[in-house]
Amino acid sequence: MRGVKKTNLPTKQCPVCNRPFTWRKKWELNWDKVIYCSKRCRTEKK
Predict the structure, then answer these.
(1) Contacts of 14 (CB under 8 A, 6+ apart)
(2) Residues 18-46 pLDDT 10s
(3) Which of 7, 10, 15, 27 sits most deeply, having the most CB atoms within 10 A of its CB?
(4) Residue 40 host element (H or E)
(5) What's the confidence (pLDDT) of residue 7?
(6) With 0-12 CB in 10 A as exposed, 13-18 as middle and 19+ as buried, what is 3?
(7) How many domains does the chain have?
(8) Highest taxon of the source (predicted)?
(9) Range of the domain at 32
(10) Predicted pLDDT of residue 45
């Protein structure tokens, strides 16, 4: 069996919409720096 099951992926909570979002492959190298769940939340942060 390869990798990690989707149920065991790390999650964070978006400070704008307060929804949980899970780890994505494209965020593999900078997961510590990811704060927002989407571009929309990033632009509406204020």
Answers:
(1) 20, 21, 35, 36, 37, 38, 41
(2) 999 999 999 999 999 999 999 999 999 87
(3) 27
(4) helix 39-43
(5) 86
(6) exposed
(7) 1
(8) Bacteria
(9) 6-43
(10) 81
